[in-house]
């Protein structure tokens, strides 16, 4: 990953927490602690961040006017190769004529690339997924009504009975902020509310997460793992997390090692 991208991610993480530790950034970016220290020192010198013992702190923690979580533009640069292969495996579950629901996110977004030659009914709350499918495929696309959250590129409705409540699908595809023994984790209550409306509106529920999500924790549980039918991840998943998924009764799909390469430099 280029230095400029690392700096952008570090700034976004500091604004989010607003204190971010060296250990967390090492795991997230896949580089050495020495590299992270140099990055923080550089950003501190530029007056963009405050260097503190063991990590970094935002200069001006923002007031919350958007959803909790990293912006879409930042997430899009993390573990891209793994996400593309996870998305490919997700699309391989589908067949022409299916009705599917795709929740917004950077991993689910890559499903749109592999849906170009398919003909399905697609409900999505992601306007970037909808735009891609409308421009590059013959899928029929439905968008729910609601508020557009530009940083995350998703649409969320505050109303219990929007168009999504009338849509039933063969598969529901979701991402997550984290995965733990407690279940599928999200960071924002509005996202949890939106996904809870859809959890029972599909025959099968499919969780798309790259292996880094098994190291992340948030304070909101979307659903227990027992509610998930398939978990698709990359070969970086650790043995403990793999056991956790299988014991929950989920079918685990791990993308082939040869298709996922490290992007850290």
From TrEMBL:
<feature type="domain" description="HTH deoR-type">
    <location>
        <begin position="3"/>
        <end position="58"/>
    </location>
</feature>
<dbReference type="InterPro" id="IPR050313">
    <property type="entry name" value="Carb_Metab_HTH_regulators"/>
</dbReference>
<keyword id="KW-0805">Transcription regulation</keyword>
<dbReference type="Pfam" id="PF00455">
    <property type="entry name" value="DeoRC"/>
</dbReference>
<dbReference type="InterPro" id="IPR014036">
    <property type="entry name" value="DeoR-like_C"/>
</dbReference>
<dbReference type="InterPro" id="IPR037171">
    <property type="entry name" value="NagB/RpiA_transferase-like"/>
</dbReference>
<keyword id="KW-0804">Transcription</keyword>
<dbReference type="InterPro" id="IPR036388">
    <property type="entry name" value="WH-like_DNA-bd_sf"/>
</dbReference>
<dbReference type="GO" id="GO:0003700">
    <property type="term" value="F:DNA-binding transcription factor activity"/>
</dbReference>
<dbReference type="InterPro" id="IPR036390">
    <property type="entry name" value="WH_DNA-bd_sf"/>
</dbReference>
<dbReference type="Pfam" id="PF08220">
    <property type="entry name" value="HTH_DeoR"/>
</dbReference>
<dbReference type="InterPro" id="IPR001034">
    <property type="entry name" value="DeoR_HTH"/>
</dbReference>
<protein>
    <submittedName>
        <fullName>DeoR/GlpR transcriptional regulator</fullName>
    </submittedName>
</protein>
């Amino acid at each position: 990953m280029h230095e400029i991208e690392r700096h952008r991610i570090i700034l976004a993480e500091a604004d989010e927490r607003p204190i971010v530790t060296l250990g967390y950034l090492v795991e997230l970016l896949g580089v050495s602690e020495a590299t992270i220290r140099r990055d923080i020192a550089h950003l501190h010198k530029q007056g963009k961040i405050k260097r503190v013992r063991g990590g970094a702190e935002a200069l001006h923690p923002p007031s919350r006017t958007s959803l909790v979580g990293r912006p879409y533009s930042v997430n899009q640069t993390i573990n891209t190769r793994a996400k593309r292969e996870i998305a490919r495996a997700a699309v391989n579950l589908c067949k022409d004529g299916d009705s599917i629901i795709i929740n917004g996110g950077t991993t689910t977004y890559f499903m749109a690339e592999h849906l170009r030659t398919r003909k399905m009914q697609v409900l999505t709350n992601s306007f970037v997924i909808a735009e891609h499918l409308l421009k590059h495929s013959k899928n029929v696309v439905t968008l729910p009504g609601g508020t557009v959250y530009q940083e995350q590129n998703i649409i969320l409705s505050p109303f219990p009975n929007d168009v999504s409540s009338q849509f039933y699908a063969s598969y529901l595809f979701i991402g997550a902020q984290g995965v733990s023994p407690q279940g599928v984790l999200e960071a924002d209550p509005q996202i949890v509310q939106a996904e809870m409306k859809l959890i029972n509106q599909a025959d099968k529920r499919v969780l798309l997460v790259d292996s880094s999500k098994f190291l992340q924790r948030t304070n909101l549980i979307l659903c227990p793992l027992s509610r998930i039918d398939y978990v698709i991840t990359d070969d970086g998943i650790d043995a403990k997390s793999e056991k956790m998924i299988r014991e929950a009764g989920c079918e685990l799909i791990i993308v082939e090692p040869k298709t996922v390469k490290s992007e850290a430099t």
